[in-house]
Amino acid sequence: MAAQTHQPWPAPVVTAVAGVLGDTAQGLTGREIVQLLAAVRVPEVDGGNKRDRLAGALLSQQERQQASNCVIAFINAAMAPVRYAQQPHVFSRRQDDLNEVLVHVGLRVNDQGKLARGPAATTLTEAAQHASSLRAELRRRATHLEVLRYCTLEILAKNAFHAGLEAVKSVADRLQQLTGEHLDGARLVDAVLMPGRGTARVAINANVTGPELDEQKGLANLVKGLFSMHRNPAAHEPRLHRTVTDEELLELLTALSMVHRRLDGAHVTP
Are residues 162 and 54 in the same domain? Predict the structure, then answer.
């Protein structure tokens, strides 16, 4: 952004930026924050955790200068791509998380790690849509944690092909863990989800009435269909010949989330 005086940002936006960059698990270290504050000439403040200290330092400097330049400078310094040469997925995560915040002031962090103009949002739904973040949309859809656990790194790497492949594996892995079964694919589904002469080993209902059995069979067939559509071809076909769009990935992860939610309440016979 050009060297000029920028209007102060709302305190909640500055605090949210500090929440991203000072996050306990995914943010900058305390030492990194101290070094970056010194680099952009923002005095430190005492008290609280690193997130609160960062927010306090940026808000105090913004108040003194009556400008958001200090916040902009800190973000630009913190997001310099050279800092992430060995951890590009960390850059992607922070870029996505910051953009969900910055969209409320019509800004974004571009791929060069610099603040740039972007669309503005007034609601959380608009923020998720404008942030251009697949993770933001997945959070908005309340994607099941078991799905995200298997494919977050691939999503951060912006690799939809492998993200979908790893996400589908989450269902097979969970069925194996629930039952101790070592089969895979359709054979696994038939063994643990498909009702036979009795109740399915992983039963999502009582498996007694016709509608209950239909529902159980429907889930089993759905899982086999997901394996057939998204795991088997991806496992054998080169990524070069198979394009997976973000929208297709969202549809797949939403379907897998539904499967996992049904498994959450299932009765399991080991």
Answer: no
